[in-house]
Amino acid sequence: MDYLVRRLSPRLIILFGSCARGVATPNSDIDLCVVLEDRLDVKERVTLRSNLLPEILELTDFEVDLFLCGIQEWEEHKGNPGTLIGKISREGKVLCHRQPEL
């Protein structure tokens, strides 16, 4: 997580999925939602994720999956239970929370 904080300066990092629910198995991956200050289009999201995952794999023995979104997208969907962001907002565990800079 320190790597993601240094590399991305995210607003939020949230653990979700089986690890957050306490039902992870030895084969479970670690699901992280990383909420960034900037809005990301699909191409930027895919490129950033594909660059980060190999770097993370070098730092940990665990499989990690990243869901990346911008703070505006997070705010728009966090209250909607029918979206992935809404589910993460309800069930996830906040690992890192950074206030916006004034």
What is the element layout, followed by pairings?
Layout (H helix, E strand, L loop, with lengths): L1 H7 L3 E5 L1 H4 L8 E7 L5 H18 L4 E7 H7 L6 H8 L1 E5 L5
Annotation keywords:
102 residues; alpha+beta; Beta Polymerase, domain 2; four-stranded mixed beta sheet
How would you portray this structure in words?
The protein is α+β, with helices and mostly antiparallel strands and 102 residues long. It has one domain: Beta Polymerase, domain 2. The chain has 5 helices and 4 strands. It has helices spanning 2-8, 18-21, 42-59, 71-77, 84-91; strands spanning 12-16, 30-36, 64-70, 93-97. Strands 3-2-1-4 form a 4-stranded mixed beta sheet, sandwiched between helices. The two termini are 24 Å apart.
CATH class: Alpha Beta
> Could you say how many structural domains there are in total?
1
How many DSSP H or I helices?
Answer: 5
| Total E-strand runs | 4
Q: And the CATH topology?
A: Beta Polymerase, domain 2
Which CATH architecture is right?
Answer: 2-Layer Sandwich
Strands of the widest sheet, in order across it, are: 3-2-1-4
SSE pattern: HEHEHEHHE
